[in-house]
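Sample entry (455 residues):
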Amino acid sequence: MRFSSFKEILTHFSNNRNPALIYDKNGVKTPLSFAELLSLVEKREKELSAEGKTSIGVFCAPTPECIATIFAAAALKMQVVMLDDGIADESIALQIKMADVDSLYADDKDTEEDFKQYLTSGVEKGANRILFFTSGTTSTSKAVVLTEQSLCNSAYNGSAKLPLTQGDTLLCLLPLAHVFGFICSLLWGLSCGATVALSRGARYLPFDMGYFEPTAVSVVPMLLGFMLQQKLLNANLKTILVGAGDCPQPLLDAAAAMGKHVSFGYGLTETSSGVAISVQGDPRAMEVCPDDKITIADDGEILIFAPTCIMQGYYKDEKATREAIKNGVLYTGDLGYLDDEGKLHITGRKKEMLVLPSGTKIFLPEYEGKLARALANPELAVILIDDKPALYIKEDEQNRAALQEKLASVMRELPRAQQISNIIFTDKPLPRTATGKIKRWEIQKSEEQKNGKND
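Predicted structure, serialized as C-alpha cells:
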C-alpha cells in the first residue's frame, strides 16, 4: 500500500495486534505498538514545535526516541538532516554547517553539546526536506534532498516487488543515516505492517539474530559474509535483501543453500533508495520497481526516470544537480544492461569511484591524487583486489621500503576500510586514454585475469 507520510503509516496500522517496534530495554525485549509509536511521534511534534527551530540534525540511532524525532520533524515539515556519528567529528561539523542545521537531536545528550558550536541560523520555515549525505570522502560528500513522500514512495516500490506480511519481523541492522538503511531496515517493514526489531548495536551483532529471531533482514555484502562465516542466520529467517555494493556469488549461493530467499537490490541515495530488485531466480537479474523507468544510454550508463522518488537535487549545489539530472532523468554513472525480460543487470561503474562490499565509497581522483603527492609518483592507480583497495604503481628509482613507509604514513590518516591492502609493482607505463586519463578498468581486468578471476 502506498502512503504519503510516516504518520499515515502508523495511523493505518494503529489497530494492529503485532508491534511496530521491538527493542531491548534494560535487557528485556520490549514491544511498542503502532499506536504507541504514533503517540510518541505526536508528543515529539509538540516539543519540537515549541522550540521553533527549522532545520534539525538527527544523530540517527536505532531507538524509538530517535525514530519518533525523525517522524515528528518530518510531520512539522522541518528540514531533517540525517547525521551519522560513525564518521569523523570534523566531517560531522562540516555537514552541520553545510546543511544549515539550527538544532540537534542525539540519544546521547553529550553529543548534542559537543556539536552545538557548529549550529547555524537555520532555513526557511516549512522547508519540508530530508537530507541524506552521500558516502564519499568529506570533500565529495553531497547532501541529497529527499522528502517524506519520496521516501514513502520508495518503500512502496520495494514492498510491491518484495512484500513483507504483518507476521514478519524485519531486523534493523543498517545505519539509519543512510538511505538504504532507512528504507530497507525500517520503512519497508513499517509500511507493510510488519514488526521492526531494533539492533542493540555493533557489539551485539553476533547475538541479535538469535535474540530477535527475525524473518527478514537487509544487509550489505560484507555483513552477509560475516553472518555466514559465524553461522548467525537463524532458522526463522526467510528473506535476505542485499544492497549497497556488489556481492560475491559464493555468498549468495551459500545463503540460498540454507533455504533463504536472497534478493539483490539496486538503488541510489538520489532515488530515495531502490529502483530495481530481484524477486526470483538469478539474484542479479533485477525487476524494475513500479514507479521507475530505466533505460540504457549508448555507452551503457544506466538512466533512471523516477518522478515519485527522485531527489529534488543536491542541497545548495545547482551545478552538480544539473549534471546529474537532465530533463527529469538521473544519470547514475553506473553501467548495466536490460535483458530480454526487461530485468536489470549491473556490470560496473562509469564514475571514478570504488564501491567496497561494506558500501563504503572511495572517490578515486581525490584518493589517487593524495597518494601521488605523498609518494612523489603520478604513475599509479587504485583498483580492487579481493574486494579491497590495492595500489598499482610503476617502479622508479625510489626504494620499495621507502615507498611502503610513505604509504603507511598516508594510510594512518584514513579509515581502515579505505586503506591499501596490497601493492602491485609494474615496470611498464600505465595505460592512458588520448586525453591522459588512466584506463583503470583495463588495469583491473588485467589483474583479474592474472588471478584467474576473469569469467
